[in-house]
Design goal:
Layout lengths: L12 H8 L5 H12 L1 H4 L4 H8 L3 H10 L5 H14 L3 H14 L3 H19 L2 H13 L2 E5 L5 H13 L3 E5 L5 H6 L7 E6 L5 H12 L3 E6 L3 H4 L5 E4 L12 H17 L1 H25 L1
Parallel strand pairs: 1-2, 1-3, 3-4, 4-5
Helix pairs in contact: 2-5, 4-5, 9-14, 10-14, 14-15
């Protein structure tokens, strides 16, 4: 493997780990998960300090860095430190994004060009066979649990709205607190779980995935960099890149993937879908008539 003694500092470290995850030993996977979860802190820890926390040898840390393609642990840590500087806070990420856009001229024009670039890349990165599998799984399951937190909640809402209009029973899981537990108790082997997750492996995500797998629920995952790390827990992986980790992330590609799934589903179940939408329109007309008569 070619090693980088002086690697570029704009490497997306989480994506790098994801790309190499299946090549790592069990101990190296522990390191990978620790670094992903603690990138900011790890950027300023020595190999010995991390090894001590994980109960591993310092040599294992060095081998891990070389497995990822770095010439040494310090060269890997330099990338972690640069990632830290680029993503210290949400405001700094947004500020950096705005600075880049201003430097390039008109913000709307530059942003549109960037989004088009992400979509163009998606044409190459998204596996069409996985998309087809996802559509068939959605078709074959009536009750669908949809999980997503933070910015992903808007995508959960989109799926919930559209799938309900198509006649599906949708259970949204949009909380990381105890309130999600009651909904999980309803989940079983006849259900479908659609998980939307980007970068962060939070406790709620782990709980939902582990419980879904335990009870035999079929699972679709829409993600950016967690495919290699969580792929063994799911049945279908939909890859949706949102741009470099240090930048203000876009939801254009994930939303496009979801819209493509919904349109494909509507196309394959056109008669059923249209009947449901006609029923909705009729109810809307009745409601409008009631409102008019009460005035």
């Amino acid at each position: 493997m070619n090693t980088l003694s002086h690697p570029p500092t704009n490497i997306d470290f989480s994506q790098l780990i994801s790309d190499h995850f299946n090549d790592l030993t069990k101990s190296e996977k522990r390191i990978a998960n620790f670094l992903r979860k603690n990138q900011e802190e790890s950027a300023f820890l020595s190999a010995g300090e991390i090894a001590s926390r994980l109960g591993l040898s310092e040599a294992t840390l060095v081998r891990f860095a070389r497995t990822l393609g770095f010439g040494s642990y310090p060269s890997m840590r330099a990338v972690l430190q640069e990632n830290f500087r680029r993503r210290v806070t949400h405001s700094s990420r947004l500020r950096g994004r705005l600075d880049d856009l201003r430097d390039a001229g008109d913000i709307f024009e530059r942003l549109t060009v960037t989004e088009i670039d992400y979509l163009t890349q998606a044409l190459e990165s998204i596996n069409r066979d996985e998309m087809k599998k996802a559509v068939q799984l959605i078709r074959s399951h009536n009750r669908i649990f949809v999980f997503g937190l933070g910015p992903s909640i808007s995508l959960v809402d989109l799926l919930e709205l559209r799938l309900r209009r198509f006649g599906k029973d949708v259970v949204p899981l949009k909380s990381s607190g105890r309130e999600v537990l009651e909904y999980l108790t309803m989940m079983g082997p006849d259900d479908l779980l659609f998980v939307i997750c980007f970068f962060d492996q939070n406790p709620a995500l782990k709980l939902v995935l582990d419980y879904g797998k335990k009870v035999g629920t079929t699972i679709i995952m829409l993600t950016d960099t967690l495919d290699a790390i969580l792929g063994d827990k799911v049945d279908v992986i939909l890859s949706a890149k949102r741009g470099p980790i240090g930048e203000f992330h876009s939801l254009v590609v994930p939303m496009t993937v979801i819209n493509a799934l919904l349109l494909s589903l509507a196309s394959e179940e056109q008669e059923k879908t249209m009947a449901m939408l006609d029923k909705l329109d009729n109810l809307r007309d009745q409601l409008k008539a009631f409102n008019t008569s009460s005035e």
